[in-house]
Amino acid sequence: MGAHPPSGFEQFRKLSRRDEFLTILNTIVLWSDMYALIKPLYPKGMGGRPTIGLGRILRIDFVQH
Fold first, then answer.
1. Shortest CA distance to 22 belongs to which of 54, 65, 63?
2. Range of the domain at 41
3. Euclidean distance between the first and final Cα of the chain, in Å?
4. Domain assignment present for 9
5. Which residues of 5-41 are buried (b: 16+ CB within 10 A; e: fewer)?
6. In a domain, 44, yes or no
7. How far, in Å, CA of 27 to CA of 43, rounded?
8. Does pTM surpass 0.90?
9. pLDDT category, 4, cuts 50, 70, 90?
10. Is 52 a member of any domain?
11. Contact 4, 24 (CB under 8 A)
């Protein structure tokens, strides 16, 4: 389920509640500080299943809690 190619009408699209929430979350949380704090402890993905990106995991955890 990848992103669709831009069609030019994105500027007319109404923001969903999810988009509004993520915009607010991005203004509250300093993601760069969170990355710097967690990155040394996050698995490197050496061997076995590849890890999920740190940014995605952080956002999922914030939404869940």
1. 63
2. 14-64
3. 25
4. no
5. eeeeeeeeeeeeeeeeeeeeeeeeeeeeebeeeeeee
6. yes
7. 27
8. no
9. low
10. yes
11. no
